[in-house]
Design goal:
The protein is an alpha/beta fold. The chain is built from 17 helices and 16 strands. This is Alkaline phosphatase.
């Protein structure tokens, strides 16, 4: 019996040794074959921000995708998942886009309204500025104007986000080796770029930038590149198309991909936030579709390489979105999918003389009583956006969509990551941690 026990122990030890060797070989082979090494810093960084995109926005987009295609899978499912807090440097807990973008661009908390300055209004060094110090190229592609809070926080320094002319000036004046620090600039904002006091478009062209104001000519741009396509922001995706951000993302990647030391690209789905402020669910979901298309463009780029990191997050949540309201266990995504015009555009058309009942009949699937139409119409004396909110309330009641605010909320946002270094962006973190990790990668 003792002999058998000893023999069994020897066999058990041998088996354990064989298992350990096998596990070591399997792990080693896995590391050799992995295209994204844990210890490798990415050469290229693509930071994609869904302005105002909370977790419920992503749920709503998933339900819409399932309704349209029959699949619950979305582009977000290709990424690792984390969560981030977004509070500013005060006791309000609710951030604006400027403070949140400053946190994402610098790793430092600041006050609401601040553009890459701290609470004492000292300039904070941004991810783009650090990238240029390390000979990387930079780019931005946004559907807002390029002087808007999120892109502004990566290249400029202002005490207040509303100082848009001064913010835009930084696109020319913030230079390294006598060249502006942003190599590819794509977005709206001609109103702030071509002014009576300065023509920033002409100044950038004098610095060697190719320029277009026509989306159809994106492919003709050469680096450094400037594309300014609208006076302020782009038209809403619901009122135009859901490919505009992906087209700019594709152009930016093609221009930056051969950068010898790599690049940092900022992509923003700017108007998810704008639709959230309007509590317009159909508008919001069209922007989510536009955003998802841009993510897929970035994913197709990164998945063919072993040197690129994608990080997707939001600066904050907008609207306090709920996929149910009025105490009902119901959300009519099938009806929301049939809405074909933003309420802001409807309001503008009514103020131009169009009939509200006709517009609602043509662009929404619901039936409205004369009293409901009259009640919404009674607010037509207001400015376009406040009037639109009353049309939105009517539509949301019909679709059973809930919003708790026309502003931002303190809800944590999700963080998605893919590629080289993506393992550092899982679990819970603060938005400043995202910037600190990206800056660390750039410095390596």
């Amino acid at each position: 019996m003792n002999f058998l026990r000893q023999k069994g122990k020897k066999m058990s030890k041998s088996r354990r040794l064989i298992c350990l060797i096998g596990l070591f070989l399997l792990t080693s082979c896995g590391n050799i074959n992995s295209s994204h090494s844990v210890n490798k810093a990415p050469k290229n960084i693509i930071l994609i921000i869904g302005d105002g995109m909370g977790p419920t926005h992503i749920s709503a987009y998933r339900y819409l995708t399932e309704h349209k295609s029959g699949s619950t899978q979305t582009v977000f499912d290709k990424f690792k998942l984390g969560t981030a807090s977004t509070f500013p440097a005060d006791n309000t807990l609710v951030t604006d886009s400027a403070a949140a973008a400053t946190a994402l661009a610098t790793g430092i908390k600041t006050y609401n309204g601040a553009i890459a300055v701290d609470k004492q209004q000292n300039h904070l060094t941004t991810l783009f500025e650090i990238a240029k110090q390390h000979n990387k190229q930079t780019g931005l592609a946004v559907t807002s104007d390029i002087a808007h809070a999120t892109p502004a926080s990566f290249y400029s320094h202002q005490q207040r986000r509303k100082q848009k002319n001064e913010i835009a000036n930084w696109l020319v004046d913030n230079q390294t080796s006598k060249q502006p620090i942003v190599d590819v600039i794509l977005g709206g904002g001609k109103f702030f770029m071509k002014r009576s006091d300065r023509d920033l478009i002409a100044e950038l062209q004098a610095k060697g930038y190719s320029y277009t104001d026509n989306m159809a000519q994106l492919a003709q741009l050469t680096k450094p590149a400037l594309g300014i396509f609208h006076s302020i922001g782009f038209p809403s995706a619901l009122d135009s198309d859901t490919q505009r951000l992906s087209q700019m993302t594709d152009t930016a990647l093609n221009l930056l991909k051969n950068s010898e030391q790599g690049f940092v690209l900022l992509v923003e789905g700017s108007q998810i936030d704008w639709c959230g402020h309007q509590n317009d669910i159909a508008c919001l979901l069209a922007e989510m579709a536009d955003f998802a298309n841009a993510i897929d463009t970035a994913y197709q780029f990164a998945s063919q390489r072993d040197d690129t990191l994608i990080v997707i997050t939001a600066d904050h949540e907008t609207g306090g979105l709920a996929l149910a309201s009025q105490g009902k266990y119901l959300w009519k995504v099938d009806e929301v999918a049939k809405i074909s015009m933003t309420t802001k555009t409807m309001a503008a058309k009514v103020k131009q003389g169009n009939d509200l009942a006709t517009l609602l009949s043509q662009h929404t699937p619901f039936t409205y009583s004369e009293q409901e139409i009259a009640q919404a119409q009674s607010y037509s004396h207001l400015a376009t956006e406040p009037f639109a909110l009353h049309i939105t309330k009517l539509i949301n009641k019909k679709s059973n969509t809930g919003f708790s605010t026309t502003g931002h909320s303190a809800t944590d946002v999700q963080v998605f990551s893919y590629g080289t270094g993506s393992e550092h962006f899982t679990g819970f973190m603060d938005n400043t941690d995202i910037a600190k990790k990206l800056i660390q990668f750039v410095k390596q």
